[in-house]
Backbone:
């Protein structure tokens, strides 16, 4: 399963442009994700569109808990960043799941684990189910 990740930083972030590269390095350093994370090669703007492209990170997952590793790493990364960050995870069917540092910053360790488990379950859900069930509302 291919999961796309995009990062958006608010204007108060120390280096708003470094979000995607920082997350990609963070994910690539996780033992369960090594060799599964890369920058998308087609993340530029569509032909004829103006503006900067979105830097997309691709995570290649397979059954067996890799979604849990990805979800836990994203939650932990958000908790450890200064300034506001939002990560949007896009499933192969186009469903987007968004988590922000504002939502996870105040979670205790047990709550962070529970959120990561719900996020992993949402990433692995069958098409047609609502992946946002049980996740905190997007801000």
Residues:
């Amino acid at each position: 399963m291919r999961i796309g990740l995009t990062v958006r930083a608010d204007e108060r972030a120390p280096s708003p442009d470094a979000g995607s590269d920082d997350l990609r390095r963070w994910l690539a350093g996780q033992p369960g994700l090594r060799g599964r994370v890369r920058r998308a090669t087609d993340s530029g703007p569509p032909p004829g569109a103006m503006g900067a492209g979105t830097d997309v990170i691709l995570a290649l997952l397979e059954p067996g808990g890799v979604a849990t590793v990805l979800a836990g790493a994203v939650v932990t990364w958000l908790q450890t960043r200064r300034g506001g960050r939002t990560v949007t995870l896009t499933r192969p069917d186009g469903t987007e799941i968004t988590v922000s540092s504002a939502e996870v910053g105040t979670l205790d360790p047990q709550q962070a684990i529970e959120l990561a488990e719900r996020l992993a379950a949402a990433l692995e859900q069958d098409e047609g189910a609502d992946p946002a069930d049980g996740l905190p509302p997007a801000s």
In short: Helices lie at 19-28, 66-80, 101-104, 109-124. The mean pLDDT is 80. The beta strands are 2-9, 37-39, 56-60, 85-90, 96-100.
